[in-house]
Each structure stands twice: as structure tokens, then as C-alpha cells.
Amino acid sequence: MKNRLVADLGPLRESPAFRRLWAGTTLSSVGSALTGFAVILQVYDLTHSPLAVGGVGVAQMVPTLLIGLAGGTITDAIDRRKLVLVTSSCLAAVSAAFAAQAFAGLGLVWLLYALVAVQSSLTALDRPARATFVPGLLPASQLPAGLALNQLSFQITLIAGPALAGLIAAAPHLGLRACYLIDTVSFAAALYGVARLPTMRPQGGATRPGPRAVAEGVRFIRRSQVLAGAFLADLNATVFGLPVALFPAINAERFGGSPVTLGLFITAIGVGGLASAAFSGPVKHVARPGRAMLCTVAVWGAAFAGFALSPGLWLTLSLLAVAGAADAFTVVFRSTIVATVTPDRLRGRVMAADYVVGAGGAQLGNLEAGALGTLTTPVISALAGGLVTIAGAVVIALALPGFTRYRRQPAEAAGDGVRAAAPAEPSPASSG
Fold first, then answer.
1. What is the domain count for the chain?
2. Helix, strand or coil, per DSSP, at residue 345
3. 204: in domain
4. Is residue 205 part of a domain?
5. Among 14, 42, 228, 310, which is least packed, fewest CB within 10 Å?
6. Residue 219 burial (10 A CB sphere; 0-12, 13-18, 19+)
7. Which domain holds residue 269?
8. Closest by Cα among 86, 76, 186 to 131
């Protein structure tokens, strides 16, 4: 029973390349979480405005939307490993610029927005290319386990990153400057994890970047209720049910505004997600991931609705942990759907769309939550977002029956990598 519940560590034991990639990405992601925390807190300290914090989301969202889909065609055209080495090096330079402005004490909100925009532009190229590595390194039978381990890495980041950032930011001799500097150094781990990977060229021939290649990827997604449902479910959760922009204001109103408490908010989400990821063994046995994804999205919305009304710190953190647990399963279900339904020649473009939906939706959600919180109150904004998320899950289930009926083929039946785990083109049951 124990082996069925705990996360499958087989990919880490059996694939040295995956093990190096996983370890390097995890360490670097913790560093990136320090910068993400520091930017939000620095903007809030300078402005004391939830709307200004939401503006960080705009600076992230616009480059993501402009570059994300087009970047997917580059991922499908060249060696993905070399692309990630270039983008990671440039991202390290951006983190160094964050550190430089903090040490100089400039206090310029526009400069923070500009650095966030450059960072997001590079990330829009980096993340989709990285997402193609796991299906390329692991056989189909290990894909769900590998994706669950990636989610475990993300949850470790959510816990360690904000918790460390809160402690570092509150320390009198460290502060935000140290957060930015540690992130810069942590990129060495990411570069090491990628540098020793094999060549990662697209299977089935490279694609020529351009509007036609983008349109081909969009058509593939549009024709599949399975992919469309997964993306819409994720948008529903992130746009309406992710009130991170409200965290500083709610923390200041209820708990005195301590950076340590603010760090615990995001850490609590990570703790819940870590518990789910650590006991993700049953996920590989879920035959209908679309239906399961909608259920976990509804739980996510309900948890944030409860968070909005929670009067005490422990109940607040417990509800955030429930949200994190639901989110961990949601991400694994979505990632498995996207990886199994998509052929490798389209993987970069579909992963780019997946990233645009995830990152763009989250930042749009920050803007929406911050704007509504400014017009009304942070509590009303968080409560309304949670309730709308639940309603949205019901609407998607009714509007896209092919998504809820989708049944994942057993990984053991796959013969030719991940592509054999599901039809390369949408089947009649999953077509809109």
C-alpha cells in the first residue's frame, strides 16, 4: 500500500540525465522564488498599493502573450538544449540586474517593471523548451511519475523559496538585496542540469518558425476538446482563484504586515502541494484526468473562498494548504494530458501555449484580484474569485463533454515513446 501511495522515484533512479535536470532545476527554482517574493514586496513597500502589485503581473503577462506562442515555433525548430542554455544565461544576468538596483537603493518602480518584463520575455522562451525535456528523456511508462516529480520540485520551491525569502527579507543585514543575489548564484545549478543533457532536437523534423507554424499549433489545440478543456480549466483557476496580489494587503490588515507571515502564506500552499506530490502514487491510475482536473479546480476555488473569510492565522494557513494540495493534482493531470496528446513535432508549440495559459492567466488573475480589491476590499475580491472558480468548473464540464469523458490510455500499452500513449490527432470522442 505504501508503494502505491508515495511518489514513484523510478525516473530519478533510472535516468541520470533526468536526475541532474531535476536537481538543478529545483535548486535554481528556489532562487527564482526569492526574486519573485522580493519584487512583490519591494513594489508594495514603495507604493502600498495592491493595484501596483498587480502591475507586476501586467509586466509579466504582456511579454508572455506577445512572445509565448511565437517562441514555441523556435522550440520546434532548433536544439532545445542549446536554446535553454542561452535563455538561462540571460536570465541569470537579469537577476544580477535586480540585485544591482537593490544594492544601489534606486527604489524605481518603473525599473522593477522593466526588469520583470525582460525576465518574462526570456522565460517565455525558456519554460516551454524545458517542458519538452521530460517526455524526451523518459519512456511513456515513466512519464506520469516524472511529471509528478516535477510537481514535487515545484512544491519544494513553494515551501523553501517564500519561507527563506521572508526570513532573509526580515533580517537586518540581508534584506531584499540578498534575495536577488542568491537567485543570481543559483542559476549555476540550472546550467549544470541542462549542460550535460543529450541533444534535444525535435523528432519528425524541425519546423520553420513563423505565423504558419503558430497557426498549426493553435489548430491542433482548437480541434481537441481534451487540450482545450485542460487549458480552459487552468485559466479558470488562475484568472479567478489565485489572489496573490491581495496577500500583502490581507497580511497587513489581519496580521500586522510581517514579511515572515507573508512568506508563510505562499509556504502553506507549498506544504499542501508537497503533501499531494509526495503521495501522488494513485495519480497514474486515474483513467479520466479531465474529470479529475475539474474536481481539483473546484476544491482550489473553495479553499480560496474560505481563505477570504478566515479570521485566524492557523485556519488561513490550513485553507491555503488545501488549495496547494488541489493545485498539485491539477497540474499533474494537465501536464499528463498535454504530454500524451501532443506529438513531438508540435510539442514546443503546445507547451508554449500551455505556458502562456498558465503564466498569462496567473498574472491576469493578479491584475483582476488587485483591481477588484482596490475597488471593493481585498476580502471581497478573494471571496468572489473563489466562488467564480467553482462555477467555472461546472460550466466547462457541461460545455466540453469530450474533456470529462477523455480516458488516458495505459502507459504500458505505449510502444514508441510518449506519442503512442494517445492519438497524435484528436479522436472523434475528443474533437469539438
1. 1
2. helix
3. no
4. no
5. 14
6. exposed
7. 11-198+211-430
8. 76
Q: Hey, which residues does 431 pair with through a beta bridge?
A: 224
How many angstroms separate the CA atoms of 370 and 382, rounded? 10
CB atoms near residue 292 (< 10 Å): 17
Phi-psi group of 105: left, alpha or beta (phi > 0 → left; psi -120 to 50 → alpha; rest → beta): left
Q: What is the DSSP string of 191-241?
A: HHHHHTSPP-PPTT-----SHHHHHHHHHHHHHBHHHHHHHHHHHHHHHHS
CATH number at residue 220: 1.20.1250.20
Q: Does any domain span residue 57?
A: yes
User: Minimal CA–CA distance to 327: which of 270, 387, 384, 287?
Assistant: 270
DSSP letter for 279, please.
T
Residue 368 lies in a domain: yes
